[in-house]
Amino acid sequence: MIKSHELKRRDMYLNKLIGFQDTEPVKVVTGIRRCGKSSLLKLMIAHLKETGISKAQIVEMNFESHEFKYMTSDGIYDYVKSRVLTDKRMYLFFDELQRIDAWEDAINSFRVDFDCDIYITGSNAYLLSSEYSTYLSGRCVEIKILPLSFPEFLYFHGFLIKETEGIFGRKRRQVFDKDNNPYDIKEVFAAYMQFGGMPGIADVGLDQEKALSLLEGIYSTVVIRDILERERRRGQKQITDFVLLRKIVLYLADNIGSNISASSIGNTLVNEGLLEEGKRKNAPSVHTVQSYVNALLESYIFYDIKRFDIKGKEFLRTLGKYYIVDIGLRNFLLGFRNRDSGHALENIVYLELLRRGYDVAIGKIDNTEIDFIANKVDKKIYIQVTESMLSEDVRRRELAPLQKIRDNYRKLVLSLETGLDTSYEGIESVNVIDWLLSE
To answer: Residue 129 has what pLDDT?
Structure first.
């Protein structure tokens, strides 16, 4: 088991922060609670010290701490001002800053008054909503942090991949734990699909009961504390029914990768008797459901994805899809059992595309659908995700939409069972585990 005090590196995010070090923009690290934002700040602080920055040049404030619980914007300013070295560049770190009213006033004052480099974390998209971003006048850069990727999961849990050679010289990957016990790569990937990528799981080990307890704490904090806090800061009372909120969470978690609208959510809750007695007669309004869904999106528990008409070259307003931030969190909500593993695999691929910096949409071509169109600068990939390509019927279904696309961008089918062929008319059939480990 990995000890909780060990700080595990997350170089993908740390390198982004280092890349922006000593530049004017405020560095804003966002993501769901407990996904590693605080640890990333600690990694950045360790980097600064390793490169010669003194401890006196670094000011840290974590607003989850009781020490700063009742701090005001003016209090933050006074606290930092009393520690500023006038002849040195200062490095200011503010963790979970969205808890402080008018925080943006203090941040802007630091930028004007001191020679400093500023780093912020926040667990709610409201931190960077249009209402607040105007205060920073575009002088901020957002670094979005997600739960662990599959390679990070291996690293955090102490697994090491080694390539071994089979009897016919064919290379294969094997995974070994810290005691050098071997595991099949598919077995470890199954654990990733069960437990998910919340970094805290590595502290308790792959124990279902302990993992449930940890995930329950994350869910309670996100849904109750963050969403209530968001409403309070906005001075609104839109999210008042937490029974309804939980039902919407469960519905979205159970329907990841499915076409959904706000009206279909409300109608389904009523038709399937998922609302409490007395609330079943009338479906919640589309506006109400959308408000609750928006709150979940802003707390980074779900991500929405739009549909793009490939032939018409436009985004469609109809039925989008939702994916959950962590597949382990979904298993906590719905029960640890093998359910809908095809959509769960799709969810993992979607999050990995986000990690790799792609803009992602669902593709529509004629009456067929492509799971993902991933765009990045001059790069585009069309992707289908399925558990297995062994069946002729599945191959036909997954390949048909890709075969309709006439451009020369890369086309992939990602699966756990690729079949014997590695290519169909230029469409690549790639093992999803190999793809996850490829970057």
So the answer is: 61
* Candidate from 159-173, 223-237, 253-267 with smallest mean pLDDT: 223-237
Say what the pLDDT of residue 366 is: 83
- Give the neighbor-by-neighbor strand order of the sheet with 314-324: 314-324, 302-309, 359-365, 368-376, 379-385, 410-415, 427-431, 423-424
- Under the banding of pLDDT at 50, 70 and 90, the label for residue 275 is low
- The domain in which residue 435 lies consists of 340-439
Residues 379 and 401 in one domain: yes
Give the count of alpha carbons within 13 A of 141, CB side only.
Answer: 16
Q: Which of 119, 144, 169 is the last residue of a domain?
A: 144
Query: What is the Cα 267 distance to its own chain's centre?
Result: 28
Using DSSP's 3-state secondary structure scheme, residue 29 falls into strand
Measured CA to CA, the distance from residue 377 to residue 175 in angstroms comes to 35
pTM of the model: 0.91
Any residues with CB less than 8 A from the CB of 17 and at least 6 apart, and which? 27, 29, 40, 44, 119, 143
The helix/strand/coil state of 336 is coil
Q: Is residue 240 part of a domain?
A: no
The pLDDT, as a whole number, for residue 253 is 95
Same structural domain, 89 and 198: no
pLDDT(272) > 80: no
